[in-house]
Amino acid sequence: MIPISWYLLLSAFLFACGVTGFLTKRNIITLFMSIELMLNGVNLSFIAFATRLQTLDGHIFVFFVMVVAAAEAAVGLAIIISVYRTRETLNVDRVNLLKL
Amino acid sequence: MHQFLFLLFGAFCVGGAINLLVQKKTINSALSLIVVMGSLALIYLLLGAEFVAVVQVIIYAGAIMVLYVFVIMLLNAGKEEEVQGSHVAKIFGIPGLFSGGIIGIWVLLQHRPDDKLLPIGAMYGPADKVGELLFTKYLLAFEVTSILVLIAIMGAVVLTRRSRS
């Protein structure tokens, strides 16, 4: 017997860690990993509420979130590779021009 | 027993998330993110979401994180560069964060709804039921998702291609 609020607390903590990492880190790959952490926190909320409300729709939503996260990771990492090719850096503070 | 399992894997999640923030090397952050995702999969199993737990391991901890580690090694991403944060953020940020968090928790405790206990195995989320729902109620969204993935594949190929010039 675990209260649903425990799951929600864990979910909120993961989301907060993701936000903190996104705001404080400067490596572009770590920023992307922080976004993944935020998405994972949201997924945990979906599953906890799906169990509480006795419906399977939350599982479907988590599936869609995962698909979007996979697509985002593929495109984002491709962008990181092409940025590294032209700038030779992964620090987001140094990538401040749209045009070279 | 279930509480013990939840607390164990929850502690793994929390530790991995904090380790992701603390580590300076990118590869260490990626490995701690894998720990977070693996223990989240076990928490999904505790909630009875079999399908989601399996997909979490295969797609998140498997495919996506392998892609991340591959890119980290390809780009030879070592230590993060040290940056000087602004002093105002250091002086006001941390106390502000704590006071904001305490106020938020206090407000939420004032309006706490009925915290129904969640029995383990309260819901059994077998893969066939999820698939049935996916191919009936959410069929359109599922098909649109396939187009999204196709566009993502083409985008990744186009973005990483070297220009001919």
Give a quick summary of the entry.
The complex is a heterodimer of chains A (100) and B (165). In chain A, 41% of the residues are buried. Chain A has helices at residues 4-24, 28-53, 57-87; one strand at residues 2-3.
Tell me, briefly, the overall form of chain A. elongated
Radius of gyration of chain A: 17 Å
- Termini separation of chain A (Å)? 58 Å
Quaternary state reads: heterodimer
Shape of chain B: extended
The Cα radius of gyration of chain B reads 21 Å
Structural domains of chain A: how many? 1
Question: Mean pLDDT of chain B, rounded to whole units?
Answer: 85
**SS-based class of chain A:** mainly alpha
* The first-level CATH class name of the largest domain in chain B: Mainly Alpha
Strand element count of chain B: 1
CATH architecture term of the largest domain in chain B: Up-down Bundle
Let me know the average pLDDT of chain A: 88
CATH topology of chain A: Helix Hairpins
Task: Report the β-strand fraction of chain B as a percent range.
Answer: under 5%
Describe the fold and architecture.
The complex is a heterodimer of chains A (100) and B (165). Chain A has 100 residues and is mostly helical. Chain A has a single domain (4-87), classed as Helix Hairpins (Orthogonal Bundle), CATH 1.10.287.3510. Helices cover 78% and strands 2% of the residues of chain A. Chain A is built from three helices and one strand; from the N terminus they run E-H-H-H. Chain A has helices at residues 4-24, 28-53, 57-87; one strand spanning 2-3. The radius of gyration of chain A is 17 Å and the shape is elongated. The termini of chain A are far apart. The model of chain A has no long low-confidence stretch (mean pLDDT 88). Chain B is mostly helical and 165 residues long. Chain B folds into two domains: 1-79, NADH-ubiquinone/plastoquinone oxidoreductase chain 6, subunit NuoJ (Four Helix Bundle (Hemerythrin (Met), subunit A), Up-down Bundle), CATH 1.20.120.1200; 126-165. Chain B is 75% helix and 1% strand. In chain B, helix 1 packs antiparallel against helix 2 (26-46) and helix 2 (26-46) runs antiparallel to helix 3. The model of chain B has no long low-confidence stretch (mean pLDDT 85). Chains A and B meet through strand 1, helix 1, helix 2 and helix 3 of A and helix 1, helix 2, helix 3, strand 1 and helix 5 of B.
